[in-house]
Amino acid sequence: MSPKRPSDLQFALDLDTDSPDTSAPEQSEPQTLLGDSEAMMGLLAQWRGNDWLQPLDVEFARFLRQSSTEQGEPLDPIVILLAALVSHQVGRGHVCIDLHALLSAPRSTLALPPEDGHRTDGAEACLMPEDILSELSVETCMAALNGSSTVSNGSLTTPLILSGTKLYLRRLWRCEQQIAEGINARLSAPTELTEVNSEPARMLATTLSRLFRQNPDGGVDYQKLACALAARNRFAVITGGPGTGKTTTVVKLLAALQAIAGARVNNGQARRVFRIRLAAPTGKAAARLNESISKAVEELPWDELSGSLQKDDIPTRVTTLHRLLGSRPDSRRFRHDRENPLIADILVIDEASMVDVDMMASVFDALPEHAQLILLGDKDQLASVDAGAVLGELCQRAFEGHYSAETAQWLREVTGYELPEDLQQGDGRGLDQAVAMLRRSYRFEENSGIKALADAVNNSALSDDLLHKCRDKSFNDLAWPGPDTPVKLPADLQQLIANHAVTGSPECFQNAGKDRQVRGTEVRPPVGYGHYLQLMNDHNLNARNPRSDWDQLARQVLEAFADFQILCAVRQGPWGVDGLNELVVEHFSGKGLIRTGEGPWYNGRPVMVTGNDYNLGLMNGDVGITFRVPWGEDAKPMPMVAFPASDGSGEIRWISSSRLQQFETVFAMTVHKSQGSEFTHTCLVLPDRLSPVMTRELVYTGITRAKHWFSLITGDPRVLRDSVQQRVVRASGLAGLLGQD
Ligand SMILES: Nc1ncnc2c1ncn2[C@@H]1O[C@H](COP(=O)(O)OP(=O)(O)OP(=O)(O)O)[C@@H](O)[C@H]1O
Predict the structure, then answer these.
(1) Given CB 3.0 to 4.6 Å as the disulfide criterion, which of 7, 241, 368, 386 pairs with 356?
(2) Any idea of the CA torsion for 339, 344, 350, 356, to the nearest 10 degrees?
């Protein structure tokens, strides 16, 4: 009988997490442990007791040991150790563990013991992972792994897979294989546009010339190039920073593809356009794309486009990936898979940086072989919460282009543009030819502080001059109030943060945020949360008002709530989500903006859903506002939470607060949770101490959530610079499978 896969194991094991077996064995020498599996299990239990490993990590190792013993093959203690460590790494977002990295830098690779102080306080004295790993070589580990029936190179159904020097849990190894197979198969299949002299390619050139006007500055239009590249390939990625036109480009791409498909009617065939599906990883991101795609479709130069193209040919309804694939309660399997594929010719996924390997593999599993997949996203944003950094890996070489001479020539014929020489390299590989990077932001003006700071963070180029300009209001969209020295106590800044939360502190911005225009449109000064709370408190609706009046109010309030958002790098402590939520609630309550005396579900309480709830139709990340509506008996107020429908239809869904299962107050949210959202004004709070979660990607993601106003509040200004020096690096083999490393 083949051993169970870890994914099944995670479900099958009834983990007794309340009473971990932490009975500490006598402290053994590393050498003794490496020869004694019982002692090794004891050490893992100690690490678990110190909260350094999760129960699942230890149970996984225990399960492998037990099943090996039952099969008459005692498991090598080295394999026991590595099994627990690979499970630990997966819990930290890695897809695998690389033995070279593990043995050369165990502490930084494993982040054990944890560096944030948390979980080391009161930890029981025990051997450190590095004490044991320093006794091992890559060769010894490989010999132990290769000698175990729990490990194979993938040709057998073993729980662990060793690929080169990378050790995987089988499920994630399989996910990577599936993604690579899906991409490679699509890249190697020519399309009707591959041949530059073909009728469809000529039609593409004509349509693109109508969709894109000549660049006024005479430079290359990267949106047009991206459109052409994505049209040519069955798999394509369009990456770019905020406001670089990803949505605009993909709408033009879909218009071009549909125009080509629709034109076939002239050749005597029945008119048949592509079946297009649009998806995003979260409800919030789907709703945002819904809105921007509808706008972009309206803005297409319809008069100039081929008569065979109709508005309805470009869908504007965006769904979440979970809904698209058909998630089922209590199952990790989706309704759509290779046995029951999606009905689609083209699938567009926005905010693809948030998609983990597991989900991406499910997408390829459910996608019909012929279907084209287009990923949109910002490669520099934080990676997915769960394992992998798929978009980042696919875009590893995007900045330098690496386009081949053949691609350059094809682009010249189809777009009329000559690729800049530095984007053409002789070493161009298959995937490079299908990745396009947009390089100009249309959201921010040239002198935008948000843009300048985001770019500098991204390039790790935070100069003194730039930081000084951020401090002294040189930019009209950015404020960095507070002392420029480390604060002694969080309380020193609490008033500042609390004031920001009420009014958005326009006085901290240049000219108090007044008289500002962006691309000819006036931008209102910052308003903080005070604006939405005022709308909540000033209305005069009562029990006699129809539901539609309440819907209208909820729509206005939800829109006003998106005017401001506090973002935190960390969750705990006075600088974290928990502490700042408490601070805001206390301050607002003191000012009479909210009435906490009404109970936990006070009028105006904003909440974010923290887990998918298929019964209620709510997705992780959905944000709603509590209204005490007079809908009870005798017009008794009852707390209902108003959520916007995720299809962007503007409908409001009222959910009784008592039905919500997983949620949290969201005056402050983590940067992780803010992915896929944008706010008129974002206030990023960085703590007074660096921690491993504070990385360049996190700071960049936090800054780029801001549409018009950005404030930075720092416990210690040096933390900004230090965070930018830390990167999110995730072990994975995907780039290698796609020839990208
Ligand atoms: N070539 C262009 N010329 C002028 N304006 C443009 C151009 N491309 C995009 N825009 C405008 O810039 C704004 C951002 O464009 P779009 O929404 O397509 O970017 P995005 O990369 O999808 O943004 P986000 O970062 O929000 O996902 C829109 O208002 C759009 O109309």
Answers:
(1) 386
(2) 10
Averaged pLDDT, 442-456: 91
Instruction: Report whether 266 contacts 604 (CB < 8 A).
Output: no
Which contacts (CB < 8 Å, 24+ apart) does range 136-143 have? Answer: 136/34, 136/78, 136/103, 137/103, 138/99, 138/100, 138/103, 138/165, 140/78, 141/78, 141/82, 141/99, 141/103, 142/99
Buried b (16+ CB within 10 A) or exposed e, 3-32: bbbbbebbeebeeeeeebeeeebeebebee
Q: What is the pLDDT of residue 376?
A: 97
Q: What is the pLDDT of residues 555-579, one digit of tens each?
A: 999 999 999 999 999 988 888 999 9
Judge if ipTM > 0.85: yes
391-405 confidence digits (pLDDT tens): 999 999 999 999 999
Question: Which ligand 1 atom is at minimum distance from the Cα of 295?
Answer: 31
Q: In residues, how long is the chain?
A: 741
Residues within 6 Å of ligand 1 by CB: 223, 240, 242-248, 292, 442-443
Query: Whole-structure pTM over 0.80, yes or no?
Result: yes
The kind and range of the H/E element at 77 are helix 77-91
Residue 244 labelled as part of a binding site:
yes
What's the pLDDT at 205? Answer: 94
For ligand 1, the distance from its centroid to the CA atom of residue 712, given in whole angstroms, is 25
User: Residue 236 forms beta bridges with which residues?
Assistant: 374
Quick check: 287 pLDDT over 90? no
Q: Please, which pLDDT band fits residue 251 given cuts at 50, 70 and 90?
A: very high
What residues contact residue 187 under an 8 Å CB cut-off, 6+ apart? 233, 234, 235, 430, 431, 433, 434
Confidence at residue 7, expressed as pLDDT on a 0 to 100 scale: 42
- State yes or no: pLDDT of 525 exceeds 50: yes
Alpha helices in 373-490 (DSSP H): 390-394, 405-415, 449-458, 464-471
| Residue among 466, 467, 497, 524 nearest 709 (CA) | 524
**240 is known to lie in a ligand binding site:** yes
Q: Judge contact between 85 and 150, C-beta under 8 A.
A: no
343 has pLDDT over 60: yes
Q: CA angle at residue 436 from 431 to 439, to 5 degrees?
A: 150
Instruction: Answer yes or no: is pLDDT of 616 > 50.
Output: yes
Q: Crossing angle of helices 357-366/170-188, nearest 10°?
A: 50
Q: Which atom of ligand 1 is nearest to the CA of 244?
A: 21
β-strands 96-98, 166-169 pairing: antiparallel
Q: What is the rounded distance in angstroms from the CA atom of residue 67 to the CA atom of residue 63? A: 6
Residue with CA nearest ligand 1 atom 9: 245
115 Cα distance to chain centroid: 24
Give which of 593, 560, 382, 573 is closest to 494, Cα–Cα. Answer: 573
User: 12: pLDDT confidence band, cut at 50, 70 and 90?
Assistant: very low
Name the closest-CA residue to atom 12, ligand 1. 442
CA of 100 relative to ligand 1 center, distance in Å: 43
- Look up residue 356 and give its two tokens: 């983990």
The rounded radius of gyration (Å) of the Cα atoms in the chain is: 27
Residue 82: closest CA among 71, 93, 96, 95: 96
- Which residue minimizes the CA distance to atom 18 of ligand 1? 245
Distance of CA 32 to the CA centre of its chain: 43
- Of 286-290, 414-418, 577-581, 721-725, the one with minimum mean pLDDT is 286-290
DSSP 550-619: HHHHHHHHHHHHTTEEEEES-SSSTTSHHHHHHHHHHHHHHTTSS-GGG-SS-TT-EEEE-S-BTTTTB-
* 571 vs 577: CA distance, rounded Å: 5
Q: What separation in Å is there between the alpha carbon of 244 and the centre of ligand 1?
A: 5
The Cα 303–Cα 210 span in angstroms is 10
Distances (CA, A) of 10 to 61, 170, 171, 229, 628: 12, 13, 11, 42, 41
